[in-house]
Amino acid sequence: MTGTLLTTAGFVLAYMACWFVAAQLKGRNDIADVAWGLGFILAAAVSLVAGGHYAPRGLLVSLLVLVWGVRLALHIHARNRGKAEDPRYRQWREEWGRWFVLRSFLQVFMLQGVLLVLVAVPVIFINASPPTPFGWLDVLGLLIWLTGFTFEAVGDLQLLRFIRNPENRGKLMTGGLWRYTRHPNYFGEVTLWWGIWLMALAVPGGGWTVIGPLTITALILMVSGIPMLEKHYEGRPDFEEYKRRTSPFFPLPPRV
Fold it and tell me: Among positive and negative, which fits the CA dihedral 149, 154, 159, 164?
Protein backbone atom coordinates (compact mmCIF):
# COMPACT_ATOMS: atom_id res chain seq x y z
CA MET A 1 0.00 0.00 0.00
CA THR A 2 2.77 2.45 0.92
CA GLY A 3 4.53 2.05 -2.43
CA THR A 4 1.28 2.52 -4.35
CA LEU A 5 0.40 5.59 -2.29
CA LEU A 6 3.81 7.22 -2.83
CA THR A 7 3.79 6.45 -6.55
CA THR A 8 0.30 7.91 -6.92
CA ALA A 9 1.23 11.00 -4.92
CA GLY A 10 4.28 11.58 -7.10
CA PHE A 11 2.24 11.42 -10.29
CA VAL A 12 -0.46 13.69 -8.89
CA LEU A 13 2.00 16.37 -7.75
CA ALA A 14 3.77 16.29 -11.13
CA TYR A 15 0.36 16.58 -12.79
CA MET A 16 -0.54 19.62 -10.68
CA ALA A 17 2.82 21.22 -11.48
CA CYS A 18 1.94 20.96 -15.18
CA TRP A 19 -1.38 22.66 -14.51
CA PHE A 20 0.47 25.41 -12.63
CA VAL A 21 2.57 26.12 -15.73
CA ALA A 22 -0.59 26.18 -17.85
CA ALA A 23 -2.22 28.59 -15.39
CA GLN A 24 0.69 31.03 -15.68
CA LEU A 25 0.54 30.88 -19.48
CA LYS A 26 -3.23 31.46 -19.51
CA GLY A 27 -3.16 34.07 -16.74
CA ARG A 28 -5.89 32.40 -14.67
CA ASN A 29 -5.54 30.10 -11.69
CA ASP A 30 -9.14 28.91 -11.73
CA ILE A 31 -8.20 26.15 -14.18
CA ALA A 32 -7.16 24.37 -10.99
CA ASP A 33 -10.87 23.61 -10.53
CA VAL A 34 -10.89 21.71 -13.84
CA ALA A 35 -7.72 19.88 -12.78
CA TRP A 36 -9.42 18.68 -9.57
CA GLY A 37 -11.77 16.12 -11.09
CA LEU A 38 -9.30 14.93 -13.72
CA GLY A 39 -6.65 14.49 -11.02
CA PHE A 40 -8.74 11.82 -9.33
CA ILE A 41 -8.93 9.91 -12.60
CA LEU A 42 -5.13 9.99 -12.73
CA ALA A 43 -4.89 8.85 -9.10
CA ALA A 44 -7.26 5.95 -9.76
CA ALA A 45 -5.42 4.90 -12.93
CA VAL A 46 -1.93 5.11 -11.42
CA SER A 47 -2.92 3.25 -8.24
CA LEU A 48 -4.68 0.58 -10.29
CA VAL A 49 -1.55 -0.06 -12.38
CA ALA A 50 0.85 0.29 -9.43
CA GLY A 51 -1.27 -2.06 -7.31
CA GLY A 52 -1.21 -4.64 -10.08
CA HIS A 53 -4.24 -6.60 -8.87
CA TYR A 54 -6.96 -5.32 -11.22
CA ALA A 55 -9.56 -6.74 -8.83
CA PRO A 56 -13.27 -6.31 -9.64
CA ARG A 57 -13.79 -3.87 -6.76
CA GLY A 58 -10.85 -1.76 -7.88
CA LEU A 59 -12.08 -1.71 -11.47
CA LEU A 60 -15.57 -0.70 -10.32
CA VAL A 61 -14.36 2.08 -8.03
CA SER A 62 -11.97 3.37 -10.70
CA LEU A 63 -14.87 3.45 -13.16
CA LEU A 64 -16.97 5.45 -10.68
CA VAL A 65 -14.11 7.93 -10.29
CA LEU A 66 -13.76 8.18 -14.07
CA VAL A 67 -17.45 8.98 -14.54
CA TRP A 68 -17.48 11.52 -11.71
CA GLY A 69 -14.20 13.19 -12.69
CA VAL A 70 -15.06 13.62 -16.36
CA ARG A 71 -18.51 15.04 -15.59
CA LEU A 72 -17.13 17.49 -13.02
CA ALA A 73 -14.30 18.71 -15.27
CA LEU A 74 -16.64 19.23 -18.22
CA HIS A 75 -19.14 21.07 -16.06
CA ILE A 76 -16.57 23.45 -14.59
CA HIS A 77 -15.04 24.08 -18.02
CA ALA A 78 -18.49 24.90 -19.45
CA ARG A 79 -19.30 27.12 -16.47
CA ASN A 80 -16.07 29.14 -16.75
CA ARG A 81 -15.86 29.35 -20.55
CA GLY A 82 -16.00 32.92 -21.80
CA LYS A 83 -15.92 34.39 -18.29
CA ALA A 84 -13.26 36.25 -16.33
CA GLU A 85 -11.20 34.45 -13.70
CA ASP A 86 -13.19 33.21 -10.70
CA PRO A 87 -13.47 36.01 -8.06
CA ARG A 88 -11.82 33.87 -5.38
CA TYR A 89 -8.67 33.41 -7.44
CA ARG A 90 -8.75 37.01 -8.66
CA GLN A 91 -8.82 38.21 -5.05
CA TRP A 92 -5.76 36.13 -4.22
CA ARG A 93 -4.03 37.52 -7.31
CA GLU A 94 -4.50 41.03 -5.89
CA GLU A 95 -3.69 40.18 -2.28
CA TRP A 96 -0.51 38.16 -2.90
CA GLY A 97 1.22 40.84 -4.98
CA ARG A 98 4.82 40.00 -5.86
CA TRP A 99 4.52 36.63 -4.11
CA PHE A 100 1.66 35.62 -6.37
CA VAL A 101 3.53 33.09 -8.52
CA LEU A 102 5.17 31.26 -5.61
CA ARG A 103 2.03 31.23 -3.49
CA SER A 104 0.00 30.06 -6.47
CA PHE A 105 2.35 27.13 -6.90
CA LEU A 106 2.33 26.17 -3.22
CA GLN A 107 -1.10 27.24 -1.95
CA VAL A 108 -3.22 26.51 -5.00
CA PHE A 109 -1.67 23.71 -7.05
CA MET A 110 0.62 21.77 -4.69
CA LEU A 111 -1.80 22.04 -1.78
CA GLN A 112 -4.62 20.90 -4.02
CA GLY A 113 -2.50 17.95 -5.10
CA VAL A 114 -1.89 16.90 -1.50
CA LEU A 115 -5.58 17.24 -0.64
CA LEU A 116 -6.52 15.29 -3.75
CA VAL A 117 -4.34 12.37 -2.67
CA LEU A 118 -5.83 12.45 0.84
CA VAL A 119 -9.38 12.37 -0.50
CA ALA A 120 -8.46 9.58 -2.91
CA VAL A 121 -6.93 7.36 -0.18
CA PRO A 122 -9.91 4.92 -0.19
CA VAL A 123 -9.54 4.46 -3.96
CA ILE A 124 -5.77 3.98 -3.70
CA PHE A 125 -6.23 1.46 -0.87
CA ILE A 126 -8.81 -0.55 -2.83
CA ASN A 127 -6.58 -0.64 -5.90
CA ALA A 128 -3.56 -1.71 -3.84
CA SER A 129 -5.43 -4.55 -2.09
CA PRO A 130 -5.76 -8.18 -3.24
CA PRO A 131 -9.19 -9.26 -4.49
CA THR A 132 -11.90 -10.03 -1.90
CA PRO A 133 -15.55 -10.99 -2.53
CA PHE A 134 -18.19 -8.31 -2.88
CA GLY A 135 -20.44 -7.87 0.16
CA TRP A 136 -23.29 -5.80 1.52
CA LEU A 137 -20.95 -2.86 2.24
CA ASP A 138 -20.14 -2.67 -1.47
CA VAL A 139 -23.84 -2.58 -2.36
CA LEU A 140 -24.57 0.07 0.28
CA GLY A 141 -21.54 2.10 -0.78
CA LEU A 142 -22.57 1.98 -4.43
CA LEU A 143 -26.12 3.11 -3.61
CA ILE A 144 -24.78 6.01 -1.53
CA TRP A 145 -22.37 6.92 -4.33
CA LEU A 146 -25.24 6.94 -6.84
CA THR A 147 -27.27 9.18 -4.52
CA GLY A 148 -24.41 11.63 -4.14
CA PHE A 149 -23.58 11.63 -7.85
CA THR A 150 -27.22 12.33 -8.71
CA PHE A 151 -27.42 15.27 -6.32
CA GLU A 152 -24.17 16.76 -7.63
CA ALA A 153 -24.92 16.26 -11.33
CA VAL A 154 -28.56 17.38 -11.20
CA GLY A 155 -27.79 20.32 -8.91
CA ASP A 156 -24.99 21.53 -11.19
CA LEU A 157 -27.17 21.16 -14.29
CA GLN A 158 -30.08 23.05 -12.71
CA LEU A 159 -27.79 25.88 -11.65
CA LEU A 160 -26.07 26.09 -15.04
CA ARG A 161 -29.42 26.34 -16.85
CA PHE A 162 -30.61 28.96 -14.38
CA ILE A 163 -27.50 31.12 -14.83
CA ARG A 164 -27.64 30.91 -18.62
CA ASN A 165 -31.20 32.27 -18.67
CA PRO A 166 -30.95 36.08 -19.16
CA GLU A 167 -34.18 36.54 -17.20
CA ASN A 168 -32.44 35.27 -14.06
CA ARG A 169 -29.61 37.83 -14.08
CA GLY A 170 -28.96 38.98 -10.52
CA LYS A 171 -31.32 36.40 -9.03
CA LEU A 172 -30.65 33.45 -6.72
CA MET A 173 -31.25 29.85 -7.68
CA THR A 174 -33.90 28.62 -5.23
CA GLY A 175 -35.76 25.97 -7.22
CA GLY A 176 -35.25 22.30 -7.96
CA LEU A 177 -32.87 20.60 -5.55
CA TRP A 178 -31.78 24.08 -4.41
CA ARG A 179 -35.15 24.40 -2.68
CA TYR A 180 -34.16 21.72 -0.16
CA THR A 181 -30.47 22.50 0.36
CA ARG A 182 -28.43 25.59 -0.43
CA HIS A 183 -25.68 23.36 -1.82
CA PRO A 184 -27.00 20.16 -3.44
CA ASN A 185 -23.79 19.83 -5.46
CA TYR A 186 -21.61 19.99 -2.36
CA PHE A 187 -23.89 17.58 -0.51
CA GLY A 188 -23.60 15.22 -3.46
CA GLU A 189 -19.81 15.38 -3.61
CA VAL A 190 -19.40 14.66 0.08
CA THR A 191 -21.95 11.85 -0.06
CA LEU A 192 -20.37 10.01 -2.97
CA TRP A 193 -16.97 9.96 -1.28
CA TRP A 194 -18.54 8.42 1.84
CA GLY A 195 -20.00 5.80 -0.49
CA ILE A 196 -16.55 4.97 -1.85
CA TRP A 197 -15.21 4.74 1.71
CA LEU A 198 -17.84 2.11 2.54
CA MET A 199 -16.52 0.06 -0.37
CA ALA A 200 -12.99 0.45 1.03
CA LEU A 201 -14.34 -0.60 4.43
CA ALA A 202 -15.35 -3.90 2.83
CA VAL A 203 -11.63 -4.64 2.36
CA PRO A 204 -9.81 -5.93 5.48
CA GLY A 205 -8.02 -3.03 7.18
CA GLY A 206 -9.85 -0.36 5.20
CA GLY A 207 -11.23 1.53 8.19
CA TRP A 208 -8.31 3.96 8.37
CA THR A 209 -9.09 5.27 4.88
CA VAL A 210 -11.86 7.32 6.50
CA ILE A 211 -9.29 10.12 6.20
CA GLY A 212 -10.54 10.50 2.61
CA PRO A 213 -14.21 11.38 3.21
CA LEU A 214 -13.32 13.29 6.37
CA THR A 215 -10.97 15.51 4.34
CA ILE A 216 -13.53 16.37 1.64
CA THR A 217 -16.22 16.91 4.29
CA ALA A 218 -14.03 19.33 6.22
CA LEU A 219 -13.00 21.19 3.06
CA ILE A 220 -16.55 21.72 1.88
CA LEU A 221 -18.20 22.45 5.23
CA MET A 222 -15.50 24.50 6.91
CA VAL A 223 -12.85 25.73 4.44
CA SER A 224 -13.13 26.33 0.71
CA GLY A 225 -16.66 25.20 -0.01
CA ILE A 226 -19.74 26.60 1.68
CA PRO A 227 -18.09 29.32 3.83
CA MET A 228 -16.11 30.86 0.96
CA LEU A 229 -19.03 30.77 -1.47
CA GLU A 230 -21.65 32.16 0.89
CA LYS A 231 -19.37 34.98 1.99
CA HIS A 232 -19.99 36.65 -1.40
CA TYR A 233 -23.76 36.77 -0.75
CA GLU A 234 -23.77 37.96 2.87
CA GLY A 235 -26.03 40.97 3.45
CA ARG A 236 -28.21 40.47 0.38
CA PRO A 237 -31.86 40.48 1.53
CA ASP A 238 -32.85 37.74 -0.91
CA PHE A 239 -29.97 35.54 0.23
CA GLU A 240 -30.68 36.11 3.91
CA GLU A 241 -34.29 35.06 3.36
CA TYR A 242 -33.19 32.02 1.34
CA LYS A 243 -30.67 31.20 4.06
CA ARG A 244 -33.34 31.45 6.76
CA ARG A 245 -35.67 28.93 5.16
CA THR A 246 -33.25 26.52 3.42
CA SER A 247 -30.98 23.87 4.92
CA PRO A 248 -27.28 24.71 4.39
CA PHE A 249 -26.23 21.16 3.51
CA PHE A 250 -28.51 18.18 4.14
CA PRO A 251 -31.65 18.16 1.95
CA LEU A 252 -34.63 19.06 4.15
CA PRO A 253 -38.11 20.52 3.56
CA PRO A 254 -37.98 24.35 3.46
CA ARG A 255 -38.78 26.09 6.74
CA VAL A 256 -41.94 28.17 6.69
Answer: positive
Judge residue 172's burial from the number of C-beta atoms within 10 Å of its C-beta, 0-12 exposed, 13-18 middle, 19 or more buried.
middle
pLDDT in tens, 74-91: 998 888 887 777 777 777
Q: How far is CA 165 from CA 71, 153, 159, 160, 210, in A?
A: 22, 19, 10, 9, 40
Q: Which of 93-102, 139-148, 184-193, 239-248 has the lowest mean pLDDT?
A: 93-102
d(CA 81, CA 74): 10
Q: Which helix (H) or strand (E) is 187 found in, with range?
A: helix 184-201
Distance CA 18, CA 173 (A): 35
CA distances from 153 to 59, 75, 159, 160, 189 (A): 22, 9, 10, 11, 9
Distances (CA, A) of 179 to 163, 184, 235, 242: 16, 9, 20, 9
Integer Cα distance of 101 and 93 in angstroms: 9
Question: What does pTM read for this prediction?
Answer: 0.92
In 3-state terms, what secondary structure has residue 224?
coil
Cβ-contact 125, 64 below 8 angstroms: no
Please give the single-letter amino acid code of residue 11: F
| Rg, the chain, Cα only | 19
- Domain positions in the chain: 1-131, 139-256
For the segment 103-143, what is each residue's pLDDT rounded down to a tens digit? Answer: 889 988 999 999 999 999 999 999 999 999 999 999 999 99
